[in-house]
Amino acid sequence: MKREFKLAWVVTFAGVILAGCGSERRDCVDASGKKLPDSACTTYRGGAGYYGAPRFIYGGTQSGGRVLGGSSTPSISRGGFGSMGSGFS
Amino acid sequence: MQRHRIDPRPNWQAEVEKWGLVFHTHLGKPYWDESAYYTLGSRDVDAIESATNELHRLCMETVQDLIRTRRFREFDLPAYCEFVLEDYAANPTGHLYGRFDFAYDGVNPPKMLEYNADTPTSLLEAAVVQWQWSQDRFPGSDQFNSLWESLIARWTWLKDQKLVPGFVHFAHSESDEDLMTIALLRDTATEAGLQTEGLLMTEIGWNKETKQFLDARDGAIRKMFKLYPWEWMVRENFGNHALQPELRNIWIEPIWKMLLANKAILPILWERYPNHPNLLPAYFDGPREMTRYVRKPLLSREGDGVRVVIDGTTTEETPDADTTQIGLQPKYIYQALAPLFEAGGNHAVIGSWVVGDESAGVGIRESDGRITTDLSRFVPHVIR
């Protein structure tokens, strides 16, 4: 039996992992845009949407320990899933 | 069913990495182990395939009855999940895949150990890597494996039935294994003509004004495959949002899969279908008459919290990280100990895949002991 796998995503991500690179850049920031450790976002347990909550910003430009711009807005909260780790079984 | 020794390919790490298996080594030992392989005869394949289809049918009947009769108390669910589950009797949504774990000794009928119906992994190695190994080592050989074609066909069916739109998001944890499982599923969805985007579970956004889940670019999520257990999702901050009436159908796998992935399904199946040749005796209230049994937590993955008891003595036990992680007191079921295929101190468990509602092949995991854990090895097979 002949079988052909078209593995675009598999090959792409395998290359990324083997190269030791992460995925798209993101930064955890506070309400003023100051950079925080990622754990501040992933372990945040406050109410969803609270303006002062740490949140991930995607893209934007970095200047003096702050991230300017990016795609998140105050009405959007992130980190409400994923605190438990890997889901494999 | 037989086990054979064979020399690994000299460059086996590079060979499997070429097909995406970058997590081939765990704690310095091979997870992908091609120093051995299994041969399955046509009688083995028939036995596993028919057991898989039969057990999946029984599971689907059972889950519908559980929902219809509101029998949820043994599953240790947050109460608000029960109302959502009731909805599914009238509004079923599409499911994708699952993996039974079987004890199979090559002689007696396969016995169901559990059903990983919500977040099964070891998919890339079962679907792609063991096939490539077989064509390298035994060109032209066959394998009990139609995972790639079956997943493409299932996505196509879901699309044709309008159970998925043209664009599907795929969410996962940060582990390499989860990422590569998602990558393979995205490739099969792409082959079915769907557009896909991936993101981390932690990147999922919630817009409190529009009441929508958002991707990392703030785009609305209309259909989401999540490689993340429902029992975790419903206990996290966004869990309540996920089950709002207008959002509860965006998820693959659907929430009723959490009933099948929960070990409480094992005593319920035994109660409904006593002495079924593919089931093991299992009870909620203790081992009863069993002298050789396994105590399993309701909620656990990768063999967490499992205890093997023979004649009153615990012979093997693993710590229970999963249940304590979500802040619950562990609850257990007791299942008869089934003999596993054993050769040279290696114990084999058959991972038997279901795509849609049909059997789609196997992957074999080997362990030194009787409990399959994250240290267990994936060993390829051919049909002979």
Q: Layout of helices and strands, plus pairs?
A:
The complex is a heterodimer of chains A (89) and B (384).
Chain A: H1 8-18, E1 26-29, E2 35-36, H2 38-42, E3 55-58, E4 61-63, E5 66-68, E6 76-78
Antiparallel strand pairs in A: 1-2, 1-3, 4-5
Chain B: E1 2-5, H1 12-18, E2 25-26, E3 29-30, E4 36-40, H2 42-68, H3 79-90, E5 97-103, E6 111-116, H4 123-137, H5 147-160, E7 167-172, H6 176-191, E8 195-200, E9 205-207, E10 212-214, E11 224-226, H7 230-233, H8 239-242, E12 251-252, H9 257-261, H10 265-272, E13 282-283, E14 292-297, E15 307-310, E16 313-317, H11 321-325, E17 332-336, E18 341-343, E19 346-355, E20 358-367, E21 377-379, E22 381-383
Parallel strand pairs in B: 4-22, 7-8, 7-11, 11-12
Antiparallel strand pairs in B: 1-4, 2-3, 5-6, 5-19, 9-10, 13-17, 14-15, 14-17, 15-16, 18-19, 19-20, 20-21
Helix pairs in contact in B: 5-6
List keywords for this structure.
heterodimer, A: 89 residues, alpha+beta, three-stranded antiparallel sheet, two-stranded antiparallel sheet, 21% strand, elongated, B: 384 residues, six-stranded antiparallel sheet, five-stranded antiparallel sheet, 11 helices, globular
What structural category do the secondary elements of chain A indicate? alpha+beta
As a percent range, the share of helical residues of chain A equals: 10-25%
Largest sheet descriptor of chain B = 6 strands, antiparallel
Task: Output the helix-strand order of chain A.
Answer: HEEHEEEE
Record field, number of beta strands of chain B: 22
Please count the beta strands of chain A (DSSP E, at least 2 residues each): 6
User: Low-confidence runs of chain A (pLDDT<50, min 5 residues)?
Assistant: none
Mean pLDDT of chain B: 93
Q: Would you tell me the structural class of the helices and strands of chain B?
A: alpha+beta
Instruction: Give the N-to-C terminal Cα separation of chain A.
Output: 30 Å
What portion of residues of chain A belong to β-strands?
Answer: 15-25%
Oligomer: heterodimer
> How many angstroms separate the termini of chain B?
9 Å
Percentage of residues assigned to helices of chain B? 25-40%
Number of helices of chain B: 11
Gyration radius of chain A (Cα, Å) is 17 Å
State Rg of chain B. 20 Å
Low-confidence stretches of chain B: none
